[in-house]
C-alpha cells in the first residue's frame, strides 16, 4: 500500500475560502480507499492571490506594500522610541550641529548614554521616514531639509564610538545634580546620592562601578565605594568643546595656536571636573550617617582598648607595688630575724662564754677547795703544778666537756673525790691522745 504524507493547508487572505476562490489542481492517492486535495501555499502564491483579489499590477502592489511596511516601522515600539518634537528643535540650523542634543533629535532623551546601537538605528529609521525631504515634497510641503541634516548628523555621531564618547562627556542632560538640603530632608539620602554617583559612574574605565548602597551596607562596602570614587579612573574628555581648527594650509600658525589652546582648555576642564567630583564626595561623606556610625564604633573600640590597656597597666602597677611591698616586708622581716638571731647568738655566745668562765672558776675552785691535793699549806710550786694541769686539761676539752666536768666537781668537798674526778678526766684525755701523760705534773692518768 502506498502512503503519502499530508501537506499543510495554506494560510489564505481574510475572507477567502478554498472552496469559493480556488479550484483543486490535482489529487494524490493516500490509500486505495481515500484521496486528499493539495492546496497551493507560499509567499509568492499569496502575493499572486493579493494582486488578483485587488486587481493590482506588480508595480502597484509593490508600492502599496512598501507604504504599509514604512507605516509599520513608524508604529514599531511607539511607546519606547517616541517623544514630542520641540518646534524650536525642528527649526534648528544644521550648521549649528555641535550645539544640538543628538539624543533629543532622535527621540532618545530618556535613554541617552544607555541607548543601544539597535535603538539608535531604529530611531534613525523612524525619524528619516517622517522627515525625509522626498516625503515632504510628495505631501506638498516645501520646508527645508535642515532638520533632516540634523538627524543625519546625530546618527553619525551616536553610531561612531569615539564621537559618541566625546559627546557623552559633555552631555549635561545626563548629569544628575547633587541633592539639596531640602531634598535630603524629605527624600531618601541613599537613593538621591546613589543616582548622582550612578550617573558619574558612566565615565569609569573600570566596570562595574560599586553601588552607593543603603543604611545596611557593611563598612567594607562603604569604604570600597568611597575609595573607588576618590581614586576615580575616568575616560571623560572634552574634545567635543574644542574650538574649530582652520583647515586652510595658509593658516598653519593659527592652526597650531588653536590646537595648543584646545589642549590647554581640555586639561583645565579635566582638572575642574576632578575637583567637582571630589567636592561631591566630600559633601556626601560629610553627611553620610554610615561613616559617622563606623567612626563612633571605631572610637568606641579604640577607647575600649585604651581603657583595657589602662586597666591592665594599673593592675600590673598594683601587682608590682604589692610584690615590692611584700618583698620589702619579707626583707625587713628577714633582716629583723637575722638581727634577732645575731643578738640571740651573741647572747648565747656570751652566755656560753660566761658559762665557760663560770665552769672554769668551778674547776679552779675545786682544786683550791681540795687544797691542791696536799695536807697543810700548799707550796707555790705545788699550786703552780696543779693549776698547770688544770689549765692543760681545760685547753684540751670543749665547753660542753668543761660543763660536764664542772657538773661532776660541783658540790664536791672531799679532796680525794675531787682528785679522783680530775685523774679520771686526765686518764680519758691521755687515752684519747689529746695530752701526753708526761705533760701532767700533779695529776696522774
From TrEMBL:
UniProt feature, compositional bias: Basic residues: 254-269
GO cellular component: cytosol
GO BP, one annotated term: regulation of translational fidelity
Domain of life assignment: Eukaryota
Span list, region Disordered: 50-95, 244-272, 318-358
Cross-referenced PROSITE patterns: DNAJ_1 (PS00636), DNAJ_2 (PS50076)
Biased composition (Acidic residues): 75-86
Cell location: Cytoplasm
Keyword NADP: no
Keyword terms of this UniProt record: Chaperone, Cytoplasm
Residue stretches making up the J domain: 101-171
Keyword flag Coiled coil: no
Molecular function GO terms recorded: Hsp70 protein binding; ribosome binding
UniProt biased composition (Basic and acidic residues): 57-74, 318-352
PANTHER family referenced in this protein's UniProt entry, alphabetically: DNAJ HOMOLOG SUBFAMILY C MEMBER 2
Name of the molecule in the record: Zuotin
